[in-house]
Amino acid sequence: MSEDPKLKKNVRVRYAPSPTGFLHIGNAQSALFNFLFARHYHGTMVLRIEDTDTKRNVPHGEDSQIENLHWLGIDWDEGPDKPNPKYAPYHQTERQDLYHRYILQLLDKGLAYKDYATEEELTEMRDRQKASGDAPHYDGRWYGRSEADQQAAEAKGLKPSIRLHLPENHEYSWDDIIKGHVTFNSDNMGGDFIIEKSNGMPTYNFAVVIDDYLMDITDVLRGDDHIANTPKQIAVYEALGLKHPNFGHITLIYNPKTRKKLSKRDKETLQFISQYKNQGYLSEAIFNFIAFLGWSPVGEKEIFSKEELIKLYDPTRMSKSPAYFDQQKLDWTNAEYIKKLDLDDMTNRVLELVTEGQTDVAKQVEALKLPDLREFVYQICRIYQSEVHKLSEIMEKVVYYAQITKSHIDYTQLDIFDHNEVVKVLKSFEDHVKALKPDVAAPDFKEMIQAVSRDTGVKGRNLYFPLNVAFTGSHSAPEIDQVLKLYSISTIIELLEMAIKNS
Fold it and tell me: Whose CB among 60, 99, 259, 313 lies 3.0–4.6 Å from 202's, allowing a Cys bridge?
């Protein structure tokens, strides 16, 4: 590296999404590391919207990006919603005049030129190169062409794109924050590349240079898939006589099964942050998990608060190797965060998911129309907090227990026990329930179970196994006295009678 990162001052980084859809986990990774970088060095994080590819922009795409970044716990100091007059505007479509001003500079210096080649001509050129085994490249056919040639093309109604001319056999290199020294040769970069399209729109590799320069960006952290763009951007910086920022290319996220970059075809893995939110992953857990996709702190500790991650973040510990998406690790991380939640907070988060209704199970909970849904959810959270991996599992429990008498319970689980003893336990419990006085608002079910044990002489597994099956449908259940508090007395009696009948 060219400088000690621990001495960094006046840091300015940016996260620059395109409003083309939901926030992908790979983009969230880039945003998160830019956030950690900025906050660790007490610098500035900029949110910039790269919306020049108007055909791919989707309605509310920008709002979706911002909403999901905020949910993750990522904020910024400047952006469309926090404009700094010195650097605004923050949408590329509002910066067209700025880009064209620099295009004209390059044209005047002879470092860029107009290209009137038609798409048919370019296709024929690429086909010919492919047939001869050459790497695809622009052959420079319009470089140095006369004014007369340009006027003739204009007379035909052709609109030119603008290309940057690359010097032959020129090295473009940089000291990457993550990868170390990287070098590209101009002869292997595909030839002179377009910096302004025929419709007057700048290309990504030109607009991003102008934006980063005018916004005083000091460090650019982005995905490893951008590494081939970096020499082109450095070429623009050099042509304009500008100093380029520091670059760091973050390892991509890979599928551990295919050993390939995570793609939208990987159906086993959720792709978008909104999907994780809707499934009941906690934002704190996702933040923690993504931070370990391409970086690791010193030591073995794996659960960190956002504040701890900001303090510990060290770009020299960014990984050069692929980051493999470990679903089991994510579920474990989320479960650890759930265990630490205050029960009221946990309940509120579940109810928020129900209200938003973005999943089938959330809609099912809403459709139950429970008179005191909050209390029911609270009790489910209290019972299962230490067992679930995501909040959608709490919603599944709510649906199950709210409709327990309509559920298919496998009573064959009881076949391993003595039939008469099972019936004796269940009938004894039924007798105690029926003996409850009407004014008893909160029966002591734990004491009731102990009374059944005293009455029947049945203890331990032989006592609890039948009760678990009767009231939860599973022989492995949490404290059954807590589950019983979910039910009305009539429901408890109905469940007991079903179990007696089928045991």
Answer: 99
- What is the model's pLDDT at position 7? 62
DSSP for 298-341 reads: SSS-----HHHHHHH--GGGB-SSPEE--HHHHHHHHHHHHHHS
How many other CB atoms are found less than 10 A from the CB of residue 78?
Answer: 20
Adjacent-strand bridge partners of 78 = 46
Task: Using a pLDDT cut of 70, give the percent of the chain over it.
Answer: 99
Instruction: Quote the pTM value.
Output: 0.91
Which CA distances in Å does 153 have to 103, 107, 116, 139, 435?
Answer: 20, 18, 7, 18, 98
Where in the chain are the domains? Answer: 1-79+251-340, 95-250, 341-402, 406-502
pLDDT at 440 over 80: no
Q: What's the chain's average pLDDT?
A: 94
CA distances from 83 to 46, 87, 473 (A): 10, 8, 57
Instruction: Establish whether 114 is an annotated binding residue.
Output: no
The CATH number of domain 1-79+251-340, selected from 2.70.98.10, 3.10.450.50, 3.60.21.10, 3.40.50.620: 3.40.50.620
The tokens for 445 are: 């079910």
Which CATH code of 2.30.30.100, 3.40.50.80, 3.40.50.620, 3.40.50.720 fits the domain covering 95-250?
3.40.50.620
Q: Two tokens at 270? A: 């959720």
pLDDT of residue 4: 52
- For residues 409 and 403, the answer to whether their CB atoms sit within 8 Å is no
Helix/strand/coil for 260: strand
